[in-house]
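To whoever is on call:

I kicked off a structure prediction for a single chain this morning and the downstream step that reads the tokens threw a length-mismatch warning. I double-checked the sequence; it's 113 residues and nothing unusual in it as far as I can see. Pasting both halves so you can look.
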Amino acid sequence: MEKEFVPYELVVKLKEFGFDEPCLCSWNFYTNELNFNGQPSTFSSEDVIQLPLFQQAFRWFREKYGIVGYCYIPNETGYWGHSFENKSKYDTYEEAELACLEKLIEIIEVVKE
């Protein structure tokens, strides 16, 4: 189930850009555990950070910045991560999805400078 959620390192960057959507899951630094919230939450503290689903992060980029990232399968030889002109081949959909989200963050970092 953990692979459904954006990794902590990328969540930190999303939060810097203003991501504050309610999330179903959080990471507890004190216990080093993934915790499922009883209901969507925006609570964060020194010990807890909310982790969005990948689909939430992609939707947030689309709604807040008007940019779209997506992954697709061109054939049975692999997955393509695609964001604007960036196309790279990956072995799994999850790798492509992560690379695509990383590229969207990179684009926003450049725009914010």
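Update from on-call: the warning came from a stale cache, not from the record. Cleared it. Sanity check on the structure: The longest strand covers residues 33-41.
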